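CORE FACILITY INTAKE
Project code: CF-77B
Contact: R.S. (postdoc)
Sample description: multi-component assembly, two entities in total
Requested service: structural model of the whole complex
Turnaround: standard
Below are the sequence entries exactly as provided by the requester. Do not edit them.
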Amino acid sequence: MKRSLGARIIIGATPVWIVGTYDSTGKPNVMAAAWVGVCCSEPPCVAVSLRKATYTYGNIQHREAFTVSLPPAQFVKEADYFGIASGRDVDKFSAAHLTPVKSELVDAPYVQEFPLVLECKLLHTIELGLHTQFIGEILDVKAEESVLGEKQKPQVEKIDPFFFHTATLGYYKIGGYLGKAFSIGKD
Amino acid sequence: MKRSLGARIIIGATPVWIVGTYDSTGKPNVMAAAWVGVCCSEPPCVAVSLRKATYTYGNIQHREAFTVSLPPAQFVKEADYFGIASGRDVDKFSAAHLTPVKSELVDAPYVQEFPLVLECKLLHTIELGLHTQFIGEILDVKAEESVLGEKQKPQVEKIDPFFFHTATLGYYKIGGYLGKAFSIGKD
């Protein structure tokens, strides 16, 4: 029997992404975002939704670029901090003892210590209400050699991403392998 | 040292959602989608990106509604099948021995056997390229009593969602608890 829980954001769990931007003075900033997802394969695009109150919102508008750095589970505290503090008040990279690297392709920094990075050029800005959706075209993906497996493919066990569960505000690791997509359903 | 992998969709992992729609004859259909995410808190909205070639694409355009049913890991084969077969050719509910339930709020069906359901009214249609992004306002979330924990909050361990890793086409379960958001980063 299903019970109505109302018009709210309740899902299973959603990945945590770290969005990197420069402010108007060139100071690198990072924030944690969970209202995120892939939205197109060609051109390859990701969507990041932010409240106007965030420092990153203005940075993306001005620089028309951002990066997505994927934090591995060992950096869950730093990632959570990136979602609590504001770049208006502090230098989050310094506070978290992490290293900003300037992208060679877009006007935004990424986190050196995180193993997977997407460099994105702003394509669309869509006003939805409390959140604004920034759609960025992925110009390149960069990965640490250490997370690459056969055929130079990143291995999820090595990227070790984590997820946010909205209903209980919990962070969770990735778990065990279930099977291969476009394959196990053929039976 | 980071290596360039090119302009491609490579992320950690993304949740698998089952999108429910009716076709023009009223036949219920479901498809698996991974280019998905929350995109706004107020109004509460989710974004689902689909190729024009999918049967669901036309169904959403005509009915201006869809549901998102969250498949638990025990149904990974059925979910994968929903991403392989087309509703043009088969009745996927029948083939998978699952039960369509008509939403009372929107003109779309959901999967009775899946524990969490979002009922969505189409708000925006955004052409991005190969994919079209459908943004739906969540009018209600319904959950099985069996997945609710304290204060009637859905527990992620009971929803038991799973994820798709793009680079290797693998499905993965949710793993262990890492900590509480907006809390563990305060140190």
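Facility notes:
- Helices of chain A lie at 55-63, 76-84, 92-96, 156-159.
- Chain A touches chain B through 98 residues (CB under 8 Å).
Invoice: internal transfer
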